[in-house]
């Protein structure tokens, strides 16, 4: 592995690790209902837009 490959992998893995850390800091209900709310908003907005979903 070259240094460039290692830096690239870290650049991909660090944001994922931060996101997982932040998600574990909130109660699971907020995460589940937040995702459901986002899906509901996408469905409501994308009802007449063919490429919204």
Account of the 3D structure:
The mean pLDDT is 86. The chain is built from two helices and no strands. It is mainly alpha-helical. The protein is flat, with a radius of gyration of 17 Å. The longest helix is centred in the first third of the chain and has 22 residues, at 3-24.
Index terms:
mainly alpha; single chain; 53 residues; 75% helix
Q: Please bin the fraction of helical residues.
A: over 70%
Which structural class best describes the helix and strand composition?
mainly alpha
Morphology? flat
Order of helices and strands: HH
Q: What kind of oligomer do you see?
A: single chain
- Tell me about the largest β-sheet: none
Low-confidence stretches: none
Proportion of residues in extended strands:
under 5%
Counting DSSP E segments of at least 2 residues, the number of strands comes to 0
N-to-C span: 38 Å
Mean pLDDT comes to: 86
Number of helices: 2
Quick take:
The chain is mainly alpha-helical and 53 residues long.
Explain the layout of strands and helices.
Elements: H1 3-24, H2 28-45
